[in-house]
Known about the structure:
The structure is a single chain. By secondary structure, the chain is mainly α. It has eleven helices and no strands. Mean pLDDT is about 90; it is low at about 1-10.
Amino acid sequence: MTSIQKPVSQAHRGNTRFRGAMAAVLASVVLSGCGVVNNMIYKTTGDVMQGFSRNHTVPYLLESDDLAMGCAMSEATAPLLMSFGRVTSEPDQLAVMLYLSAGGCAEEQAREHELDGLAALRAMDAEEAEDAMIRQKRALSLAAKRYHRGWKHHNAFYGKPDAGECPDFDDDLGEFIYMAGLLSGLQALNAEIQSTSSIGVPKNIGSTVSRATRCLENDKWWGAPMALRATVWAMIPGALPEGEDPFERLEIADAQGEEAGVRISHVFHAIAAQNKGDEERLRDVIRSHAQAIEETPANEEWVFVDAMATDMIVAISDRLWMENTGHRTPMGQLGTFWDDEKEAVETMDLDDLL
């Protein structure tokens, strides 16, 4: 009996090993298949998210005037949207807008720290002033990193601006994002300089941006390309072409922006005036902006850009007010200054009525 059952036991163990091996192979195939399916799902989802964000989210945001909402959205969704670059094509074009906006968030924090520092200086609190300036530089360093990432994604999508011919734009939004990328590059350099840090922003980025603005239609984009170019001329030694006057160009751009209801050129003009130390011109630009937003509503398609311009003009005005009065621009008084002559108020002589 024993000799008869032994071969049967060995055969049983052999069948068990065979079934185990087959199960392992089958599990491997199934799991591999799941990985392929998952990758396909991820890729499809990534493509859909990129397309939806580019074709709907960005245009929707550009029609809004809620800068804080746009800032929060960019900081919160950038990691999610950019992570799809691991499973599908890198969302370079979308990244330009995300990092430009996220850089603006950090720069807004830097401006708040600067105002805190100015207030502390007026209060003769040296330690608080120094701490605020340190916080300002840290925020500017973060802004520079974000702007620089936007600039690198801009170059990845459109090609390096100084490497050849102008890119072919698919539509108006693609052309606008190209301009936004140029602004991101210039802002990266400016923020890096102000932060006194070094994150690797190319020092020739100003001249590169200046040349690249020629790929944009100036009349179509509210005079902003010319304003951007003129600002570089005003700020970088040796950049001014012979026979050009950057501030004359900026005034022309201002008129175009005011008429179009997108007054971003005022910001460039104000930055150039600040760089020259021309406070009177700076005040005139702020007054012009305040008057323009009262007289002409923002362009419905570019409300966000116009609101961003107003926010930056208010920030420049706040700095002037804080330095001279210890507080920001009073509500409803953008375009006015602490030392403006008060308008004469007609009074009635009540003595004759008595």
